[in-house]
């Protein structure tokens, strides 16, 4: 492309002269663009369509105590350039409405509904403005993320019925599933409208595991909040911990030692490994190919034991800390890791060879649950699902962090059918890439300290943080408060972006393929519901 | 076809022998926490740094003692790291499950007269006498982070732990279950579902609270969207601490659970 950051800004200022104010952040890849409600839709759709920048996150923040307004931030990520354009508008309490950009940019639809539930600001022109998070059992006018709402408030529990969209017609029946499932999985409610075995429509209700995580972040000192960040999700713990630590290190203006960067990279790749191999086993289970699932879970178990040996926790918790990492990886441990990964590479290759040679399994995987590239792009799908639909986005490449600048790896995007098989193949290829990254980290990392100290946080500083978790790109936005606390910590997980895509992949498939399709996306509920 | 058999034969038996043989957790594993009251200088740092407020002070015979609740603990290890007097020691013992929340205070773990190995040998016998050959479990996620779920999946689906070797099986519906294994703080949006599931389970039934969230609300306690532990919603028979508890710790919890039912 050859367009520099400044060129984009110049185009924008000349196009919208007098209606935008551009502020450069202390971080050079974040550019804040303040505008008004009236100009919002024009600017956002211009950035989205002309710059080809995708909507990475939408953040609402109750800044009434600072400047009398709620602020909504629209984070756009420029393609092929490590730059975020953050458009923001003020919304007053007296006029709690903002224009919905969903008709222009469909990726915004869940963010706007979330803002409506959590802050009580109404997206005007939203095509589907129903409750998302609070499920109707909360009393009216309860807006948990407003600053005047106390975290410990005990609210009466109202009886509520969630609205479901249904298909009517001869022979159409409804199959309700969940929130307590038959498998050992997280809770969500799915309502299928089906004729015989073929699904016509799927309505999914999530946010059952909403724990008020973002509100709890605002009540904790930043040192304690690290442990909350690790517990946003069980299987993305290292990603969330890294994301949180990077955010704190950025606002504090602290760099971490190179060795710590490499160790973090190793941990993040170990997380990707145990997730991907476990997911492949799980997909086999979804297709009733139990040989594959048994071997998949067996290898995952070796990796989790490795995690426990390195960090003391099977989910890599308690290792990554603000300013670096808590424990070092010595030579014996390094040898153990490298040997184990070499064995696993061979073991895993044998497993996938068996899988892909099995016609009964391939029959279930191929052409099932297709996600066309256009739908994926429109809904802002990220991670494995996006790459399987031919969209080559990966935060490790687009917005490098930790030691990813210093290692060489491929991002597999060439299987662009967007079916279950493509998502399996992307994972298989990423497994080898992860092992390759870990090997390079061990080769390149030098001796040295593993931690620097962070003492005081400057108040009211804002920063973005980003991590490519096994499921896709995690985006975090932090704003500090006085006394080493957080004013706001927004977590946007990849699952939040990808969930809305699932209902589009279901119609035309048979009911027994739903678990398979769902497992091929392997989305977290806890990451989404927060 | 041949490659499938070859792979299975080459792999061999991978099932762990816990609890018949001891399988110590890795060196860095953070398990039961022990407090040395002699060394403690009451500087209060552990109380200050604990993210879940698991440490409290108790008065006994005019003396002040530090007390830890393993039900609240998320095993982050920050207390041991911050204590300058080495009064807090994190051991790698994971057999922490208890039938009463009080047993999880200060010194967690069930004070068994018998060794765990003996308990393990007795397990089949117990299941036979109480539930006629088998124990059927329904797992209920009441808002966990998915960590506990994956540990139970590892226990049930992975050939390494293979829960079914104890005659314990996972069933699809609470109507077929003898035991509910509940995780999560629980959340407000799942409270009704949890209560309905409990009532759908036939008597006699037992409830196991799995993990720090289920035991006390853990790091998510005192929030508008959660309750502080499963026992605020339904009665709990067994608590298994951990964040999340490792598969062997869950096996230990089952051993304890079956003992309890026989009483």
UniProtKB/TrEMBL annotation, chain A:
User: Binding of Fe cation: at which residues?
Assistant: 236, 527
* Positions contributing to Mg(2+) binding: 214, 491
Q: Where is the NADH-quinone oxidoreductase subunit D domain?
A: 295-457, 458-529
Describe the location of the NADH:ubiquinone oxidoreductase 30kDa subunit domain by residue ranges.
Answer: 34-153
Which cofactors are named for this entry? Answer: Fe cation; Ni(2+)
Which superkingdom is the protein from?
Bacteria
Q: Which UniProt keywords apply?
A: Iron, Magnesium, Metal-binding, NAD, Nickel, Oxidoreductase
Spell out the Pfam families in the cross-references: Complex1_30kDa, Complex1_49kDa, NiFeSe_Hases
For the ligand (Ni(2+)), the binding residues are 233, 236, 524
The GO molecular function terms of this record are: NAD binding; NADH dehydrogenase (ubiquinone) activity; nickel cation binding; oxidoreductase activity, acting on NAD(P)H; quinone binding
**Family matches, as SUPFAM superfamilies:** HydB/Nqo4-like (SSF56762), Nqo5-like (SSF143243)
* UniProt xrefs under PANTHER family: FORMATE HYDROGENLYASE SUBUNIT 5-RELATED (PTHR43485:SF1), HYDROGENASE-4 COMPONENT G (PTHR43485)
In Swiss-Prot or TrEMBL terms, this protein is called Ni,Fe-hydrogenaseI large subunit HycE
UniProtKB/TrEMBL annotation, chain B:
Gene3D superfamilies in UniProt: 3.30.70.20, 3.40.50.12280
GO molecular function annotation: 4 iron, 4 sulfur cluster binding; metal ion binding
Domain named 4Fe-4S ferredoxin-type is located at 31-60, 64-93
Q: Which PROSITE patterns does the record cross-reference, listed alphabetically? A: 4FE4S_FER_1 (PS00198), 4FE4S_FER_2 (PS51379)
- Key words of the record: 4Fe-4S, Iron, Iron-sulfur, Metal-binding
On whether Iron-sulfur is a keyword of this UniProt record, the answer is yes
Family according to the record? Belongs to the complex I 20 kDa subunit family. Belongs to the FrhG family.
Q: What is this protein called?
A: Ni,Fe-hydrogenase small subunit HycG
Q: Which organism is it from?
A: Candidatus Jettenia ecosi
């Amino acid at each position: 492309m050859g367009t520099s950051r400044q060129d984009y800004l110049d185009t924008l200022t000349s196009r919208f002269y007098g209606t935008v104010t551009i502020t450069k952040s202390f971080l050079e890849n974040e550019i804040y663009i303040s505008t008004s409600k009236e100009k919002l839709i024009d600017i956002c759709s211009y950035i989205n369509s002309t710059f080809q920048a995708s909507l990475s996150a939408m953040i609402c923040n109750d800044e009434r105590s600072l400047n009398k307004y709620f602020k909504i931030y629209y984070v756009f990520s420029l393609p092929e350039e490590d730059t975020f354009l953050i458009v923001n508008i003020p919304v007053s309490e007296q006029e709690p409405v903002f224009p919905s950009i969903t008709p222009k940019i469909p990726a915004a639809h869940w963010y706007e509904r979330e803002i409506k539930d959590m802050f009580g600001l109404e997206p005007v022109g939203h095509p589907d403005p129903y409750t998302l998070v609070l499920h109707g059992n909360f009393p009216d006018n309860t807006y948990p993320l407003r600053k005047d709402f106390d975290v410990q408030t005990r609210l009466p529990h109202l009886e509520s019925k969630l609205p479901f969209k249904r298909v009517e017609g001869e022979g159409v029946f409804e199959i309700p599933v969940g929130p307590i499932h038959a498998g050992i999985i997280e809770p969500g409610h799915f309502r299928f409208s089906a004729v015989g075995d073929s699904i016509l429509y799927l309505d999914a209700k999530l946010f059952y595991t909403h724990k008020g995580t973002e509100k709890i972040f605002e009540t904790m000192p930043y040192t304690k909040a690290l442990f909350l960040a690790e517990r946003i999700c069980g299987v993305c713990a290292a990603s969330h911990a890294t994301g949180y630590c990077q955010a704190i290190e950025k606002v504090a203006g602290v760099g971490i030692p190179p060795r710590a960067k490499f160790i973090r990279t190793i941990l993040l790749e170990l997380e990707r490994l145990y997730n991907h191999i476990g997911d492949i086993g799980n997909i086999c289970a979804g297709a009733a190919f139990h040989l594959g699932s048994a071997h998949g879970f067996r290898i995952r178990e070796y990796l989790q034991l490795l995690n426990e040996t390195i960090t003391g926790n099977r989910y890599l918790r308690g290792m990554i800390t603000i300013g670096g990492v808590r424990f070092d990886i010595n030579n014996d441990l390094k040898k153990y890791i490298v040997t184990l990964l070499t064995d696993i590479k061979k073991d895993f290759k044998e497993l996938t060879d068996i899988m892909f040679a099995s016609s009964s399994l391939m029959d279930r995987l191929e052409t099932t649950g297709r996600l066309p590239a256009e739908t994926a792009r429109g809904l802002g799908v990220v991670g494995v699902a996006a790459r399987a639909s031919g969209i080559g986005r990966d935060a490790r490449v687009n917005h490098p962090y930790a030691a990813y600048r210093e290692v060489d790896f491929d991002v597999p995007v060439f299987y662009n059918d967007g079916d279950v098989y493509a998502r399996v193949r992307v994972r298989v290829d990423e497994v080898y890439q992860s092992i390759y990254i870990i090997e390079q980290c061990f080769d390149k990392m030098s001796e040295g300290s593993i931690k620097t100290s962070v003492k005081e946080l400057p108040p009211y500083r804002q920063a973005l943080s980003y991590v490519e978790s096994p499921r896709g790109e995690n985006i975090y936005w932090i704003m500090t408060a006085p006394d080493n606390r957080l004013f706001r910590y927004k977590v946007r997980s990849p699952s939040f972006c990808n969930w809305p895509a699932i209902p589009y992949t279901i119609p035309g498939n048979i009911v027994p393929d739903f678990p398979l399709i769902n497992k091929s996306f392997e989305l977290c509920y806890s990451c989404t519901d927060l | 076809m041949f490659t499938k058999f070859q792979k299975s034969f080459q792999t061999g038996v991978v099932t762990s022998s816990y609890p018949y043989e001891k399988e110590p957790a890795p060196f860095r594993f953070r398990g039961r926490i022990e407090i040395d009251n002699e060394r403690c200088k009451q500087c209060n740092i552990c109380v200050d740094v604990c993210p879940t407020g698991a440490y409290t002070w108790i008065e006994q015979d005019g003396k002040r003692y530090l007390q830890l609740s393993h039900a609240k603990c998320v095993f982050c290890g920050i207390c041991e790291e911050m204590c300058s007097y080495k009064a807090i020691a994190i051991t790698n013992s994971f057999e922490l499950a208890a039938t009463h929340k009080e047993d999880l205070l200060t010194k967690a773990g069930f004070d068994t007269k018998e060794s765990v190995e003996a308990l393990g040998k007795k397990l089949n016998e117990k299941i036979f006498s109480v539930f006629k050959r088998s124990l059927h479990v329904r797992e209920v996620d009441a808002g966990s982070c998915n960590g506990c779920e994956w540990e139970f999946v590892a226990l049930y689906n992975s050939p390494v732990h293979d829960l079914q070797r104890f005659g314990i099986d996972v069933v699809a519906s609470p109507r077929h279950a003898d035991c509910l294994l509940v995780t999560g703080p629980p959340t407000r949006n799942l409270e009704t579902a949890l209560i309905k599931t409990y009532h759908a389970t036939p008597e006699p039934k037992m409830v196991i609270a799995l993990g720090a969230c289920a035991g006390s609300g853990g790091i998510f306690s005192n929030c508008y969207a959660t309750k502080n532990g499963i026992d605020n919603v339904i009665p709990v028979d067994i608590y298994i601490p951990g964040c999340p508890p490792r598969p062997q710790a869950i096996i230990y919890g089952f051993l304890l659970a079956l003992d309890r039912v026989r009483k």
